[in-house]
Amino acid sequence: MTGAKSSHFYYIVEVVHLEIRQASRQDIAGIAKVYVDGWQTTYQGLVPDSYLNGLSYEEAEERWNQFLDTGHEPFIYVVINGEGSMAGFAAGRSMEGEPSAGELYALYLRQECRGLGTGRQLVAAVARHFQESGIDSMLVWVMEQNKSGLGFYERLGGKEYSRRTSTFGETVVDDVAYVWRDISILYEAHGSL
Protein backbone atom coordinates (compact mmCIF):
# COMPACT_ATOMS: atom_id res chain seq x y z
CA MET A 1 0.00 0.00 0.00
CA THR A 2 1.66 3.20 -1.09
CA GLY A 3 1.34 6.42 0.78
CA ALA A 4 0.09 4.70 3.93
CA LYS A 5 1.40 6.14 7.15
CA SER A 6 2.46 3.82 9.88
CA SER A 7 1.63 4.71 13.43
CA HIS A 8 3.85 3.78 16.30
CA PHE A 9 2.82 4.10 19.88
CA TYR A 10 5.37 4.17 22.62
CA TYR A 11 4.45 3.50 26.20
CA ILE A 12 6.55 4.52 29.11
CA VAL A 13 6.24 2.00 31.87
CA GLU A 14 7.63 2.84 35.24
CA VAL A 15 8.54 -0.25 37.21
CA VAL A 16 7.97 0.26 40.89
CA HIS A 17 9.84 -2.09 43.20
CA LEU A 18 7.99 -2.70 46.44
CA GLU A 19 8.76 -4.93 49.39
CA ILE A 20 5.95 -6.18 51.65
CA ARG A 21 7.01 -7.46 55.05
CA GLN A 22 5.79 -7.69 58.62
CA ALA A 23 6.40 -4.48 60.55
CA SER A 24 8.63 -4.02 63.55
CA ARG A 25 8.63 -1.30 66.22
CA GLN A 26 11.20 0.59 64.13
CA ASP A 27 8.53 1.04 61.45
CA ILE A 28 6.02 2.83 63.70
CA ALA A 29 7.14 6.38 62.78
CA GLY A 30 6.65 5.62 59.08
CA ILE A 31 3.31 3.94 59.77
CA ALA A 32 2.16 7.00 61.74
CA LYS A 33 3.08 9.32 58.87
CA VAL A 34 1.25 7.22 56.26
CA TYR A 35 -1.75 6.99 58.62
CA VAL A 36 -2.08 10.74 59.26
CA ASP A 37 -1.38 11.68 55.64
CA GLY A 38 -3.88 9.04 54.50
CA TRP A 39 -6.60 10.37 56.77
CA GLN A 40 -6.00 13.93 55.64
CA THR A 41 -6.36 13.01 51.95
CA THR A 42 -8.90 10.17 52.00
CA TYR A 43 -11.38 11.63 54.46
CA GLN A 44 -11.25 15.29 53.44
CA GLY A 45 -14.86 16.42 53.14
CA LEU A 46 -16.12 13.28 54.92
CA VAL A 47 -15.15 14.28 58.47
CA PRO A 48 -14.65 17.79 59.89
CA ASP A 49 -11.49 19.66 58.88
CA SER A 50 -10.93 20.39 62.58
CA TYR A 51 -10.65 16.63 63.22
CA LEU A 52 -8.24 16.11 60.32
CA ASN A 53 -6.14 19.14 61.25
CA GLY A 54 -5.90 17.86 64.82
CA LEU A 55 -4.20 14.61 63.78
CA SER A 56 -0.51 14.47 64.65
CA TYR A 57 2.32 12.10 63.84
CA GLU A 58 3.29 11.86 67.52
CA GLU A 59 -0.20 10.82 68.64
CA ALA A 60 -0.44 8.39 65.74
CA GLU A 61 2.88 6.79 66.78
CA GLU A 62 1.49 6.35 70.29
CA ARG A 63 -1.73 4.89 68.89
CA TRP A 64 0.05 2.31 66.72
CA ASN A 65 2.41 1.31 69.54
CA GLN A 66 -0.67 0.78 71.74
CA PHE A 67 -2.29 -1.25 68.95
CA LEU A 68 0.68 -3.64 68.96
CA ASP A 69 0.55 -3.86 72.77
CA THR A 70 -3.11 -4.88 72.95
CA GLY A 71 -4.46 -8.42 73.00
CA HIS A 72 -6.12 -10.03 70.00
CA GLU A 73 -2.81 -10.95 68.32
CA PRO A 74 -2.25 -7.66 66.46
CA PHE A 75 0.16 -7.37 63.52
CA ILE A 76 1.06 -4.88 60.80
CA TYR A 77 2.45 -5.39 57.28
CA VAL A 78 4.27 -2.54 55.56
CA VAL A 79 5.13 -1.70 51.97
CA ILE A 80 8.60 -0.28 51.42
CA ASN A 81 9.38 1.34 48.05
CA GLY A 82 12.65 1.06 46.13
CA GLU A 83 14.10 4.09 47.94
CA GLY A 84 13.43 2.51 51.33
CA SER A 85 10.47 4.76 52.20
CA MET A 86 7.21 3.61 53.73
CA ALA A 87 4.57 3.46 50.98
CA GLY A 88 1.69 1.95 52.94
CA PHE A 89 0.59 -0.52 55.58
CA ALA A 90 -2.18 -2.88 56.65
CA ALA A 91 -3.00 -3.87 60.21
CA GLY A 92 -4.90 -6.93 61.41
CA ARG A 93 -6.00 -8.56 64.63
CA SER A 94 -8.09 -11.51 65.75
CA MET A 95 -11.71 -10.87 66.67
CA GLU A 96 -12.52 -10.95 70.36
CA GLY A 97 -14.74 -13.91 71.16
CA GLU A 98 -14.49 -15.34 67.63
CA PRO A 99 -11.39 -17.56 67.43
CA SER A 100 -11.74 -18.28 63.71
CA ALA A 101 -12.34 -14.65 62.61
CA GLY A 102 -9.93 -11.80 61.95
CA GLU A 103 -10.30 -8.08 61.34
CA LEU A 104 -8.48 -6.08 58.70
CA TYR A 105 -8.16 -3.17 61.10
CA ALA A 106 -6.56 -0.61 58.78
CA LEU A 107 -5.24 -0.22 55.23
CA TYR A 108 -3.51 2.98 54.12
CA LEU A 109 -1.38 3.77 51.07
CA ARG A 110 0.45 6.86 49.96
CA GLN A 111 -1.34 8.56 47.09
CA GLU A 112 1.32 7.57 44.54
CA CYS A 113 0.90 3.85 45.37
CA ARG A 114 -2.85 3.71 44.84
CA GLY A 115 -4.10 1.89 41.79
CA LEU A 116 -0.95 -0.21 41.37
CA GLY A 117 -2.19 -3.38 43.06
CA THR A 118 -0.37 -2.61 46.30
CA GLY A 119 -3.57 -2.58 48.34
CA ARG A 120 -4.51 -6.03 47.03
CA GLN A 121 -1.05 -7.32 47.93
CA LEU A 122 -1.36 -5.96 51.48
CA VAL A 123 -4.81 -7.53 51.89
CA ALA A 124 -3.35 -10.81 50.61
CA ALA A 125 -0.53 -10.58 53.19
CA VAL A 126 -3.03 -10.03 56.01
CA ALA A 127 -5.24 -12.89 54.80
CA ARG A 128 -2.27 -15.27 54.58
CA HIS A 129 -1.15 -14.23 58.09
CA PHE A 130 -4.62 -15.03 59.41
CA GLN A 131 -4.75 -18.34 57.56
CA GLU A 132 -1.38 -19.38 59.00
CA SER A 133 -2.75 -18.51 62.47
CA GLY A 134 -5.79 -20.74 62.02
CA ILE A 135 -8.21 -17.92 61.16
CA ASP A 136 -10.34 -18.55 58.07
CA SER A 137 -12.64 -15.49 57.81
CA MET A 138 -12.07 -11.74 57.92
CA LEU A 139 -14.01 -8.51 58.10
CA VAL A 140 -13.20 -4.85 57.55
CA TRP A 141 -15.10 -1.68 58.52
CA VAL A 142 -15.34 1.07 55.88
CA MET A 143 -16.88 4.51 56.11
CA GLU A 144 -19.96 4.38 53.86
CA GLN A 145 -19.13 7.74 52.25
CA ASN A 146 -15.69 6.41 51.27
CA LYS A 147 -16.90 5.19 47.87
CA SER A 148 -13.43 4.21 46.63
CA GLY A 149 -12.91 2.08 49.75
CA LEU A 150 -16.30 0.40 49.35
CA GLY A 151 -15.56 -0.34 45.69
CA PHE A 152 -12.11 -1.71 46.51
CA TYR A 153 -13.44 -4.26 49.02
CA GLU A 154 -16.38 -5.20 46.79
CA ARG A 155 -13.95 -5.89 43.91
CA LEU A 156 -12.03 -8.18 46.28
CA GLY A 157 -15.21 -10.18 46.88
CA GLY A 158 -16.22 -8.73 50.25
CA LYS A 159 -19.90 -9.09 51.11
CA GLU A 160 -21.78 -6.54 53.19
CA TYR A 161 -22.18 -7.98 56.66
CA SER A 162 -23.14 -5.33 59.22
CA ARG A 163 -23.48 -1.59 59.90
CA ARG A 164 -22.58 0.78 62.72
CA THR A 165 -21.97 4.48 63.33
CA SER A 166 -18.75 6.24 64.33
CA THR A 167 -18.20 9.77 65.61
CA PHE A 168 -15.42 12.13 64.51
CA GLY A 169 -15.60 15.44 66.30
CA GLU A 170 -19.26 16.42 66.02
CA THR A 171 -19.87 14.34 62.89
CA VAL A 172 -21.54 10.93 63.01
CA VAL A 173 -20.81 8.70 60.01
CA ASP A 174 -22.17 5.35 58.89
CA ASP A 175 -19.78 2.42 58.58
CA VAL A 176 -20.25 -0.77 56.59
CA ALA A 177 -18.58 -4.08 57.42
CA TYR A 178 -17.50 -6.35 54.58
CA VAL A 179 -16.78 -9.99 55.29
CA TRP A 180 -14.94 -12.83 53.58
CA ARG A 181 -16.05 -16.24 54.90
CA ASP A 182 -13.11 -17.93 53.14
CA ILE A 183 -10.02 -15.72 53.13
CA SER A 184 -8.04 -18.07 50.90
CA ILE A 185 -9.65 -16.35 47.89
CA LEU A 186 -7.83 -13.16 48.88
CA TYR A 187 -4.31 -14.53 48.60
CA GLU A 188 -4.97 -17.11 45.90
CA ALA A 189 -6.71 -14.73 43.48
CA HIS A 190 -5.14 -11.44 44.49
CA GLY A 191 -1.50 -12.21 44.91
CA SER A 192 0.13 -14.73 47.14
CA LEU A 193 3.38 -13.68 48.71
TrEMBL record:
Organism domain of life: Bacteria
Species of provenance: Ectobacillus ponti
An MF annotation (GO) of this entry: acyltransferase activity, transferring groups other than amino-acyl groups
Coiled coil spans: none
Residues covered by the N-acetyltransferase domain: 18-183
Name by which UniProt lists this protein: GNAT family N-acetyltransferase
Alphabetized Pfam families for the sequence: Acetyltransf_1
CDD domains from the UniProt entry: NAT_SF
Keywords from the UniProt entry: Acyltransferase, Transferase
